[in-house]
Task: structure prediction
Amino acid sequence: MGCCWSLLCKDDNSSQNGEPNERTHLLVDPISNNIHIQRVSSENLLSRNSNDAPKKTDEQSALTRILQETATNVIDVAAIDSHNLQQQEYIERVKMYNIKINQVLAGNKGALANSLKSCLLEDVPQPEKILSGDLLNREDRHLMTSSLLAAVSAINDIRVDHKEDLVVPFGLGLNS
Amino acid sequence: MDRPNIQGQIGYLTLNSEGAVLASEGDLKNDEKTAGILHGLITLAHNRLDPKAFDKGFKRLTVTYEDHAYVVCLSNRKIHIVKRQVQAT
Result:
């Protein structure tokens, strides 16, 4: 279980007093650690060799360039002196991860219970009994549908019956 | 009860409390759309109904159509949905 986001958490190692933890990289970044490998740009090589440039050195420099570029891009696992996990450490880490997983699961259980609280239905022991119960019979359904239709048509039928003026003059009688 | 067998059943769905499909068969096989709608419906109904207005809690929710019906109930923290044929009488 190596941590791959090495670029993002480079500082984590130092903050943990060098103790390996779940965020310790299994592979150390070779580019930042190996000082002797330097990226040599092709332009540098060209300018260096342009003065005393017999054809053979050109080819050789091109070869070295390819080699160096490859070396900077490849992580040589065997060459890196990485922290090797021992059997005991594996077991310890398994325990540690299991504890963390259980903590997360325990946190989620509360969320699960909450999502059931917002459920209209009661928890019943024998769902088959409830599910196989009689469906709504035809007459009841007819009653519900017809009264609903009547209600809808009644609501659609609501309108203002205009009989009097909307603006009524108040208090005008007192002044006159 | 992961495989309900009810008379007139033409499909079933079993959901967990979050509405994810655990099992399905027949007309409702992998029918996540229906699952989502019915799961939303029981939550919506819970938000709209005042529990004080009713003597008992609800055991079943039925969505009835002309020729079929969806019957929903909760058991062992799972939501069971059965699609049943409505007998034409």
User: Anything to note?
Assistant: The radius of gyration of chain A is 40 Å.
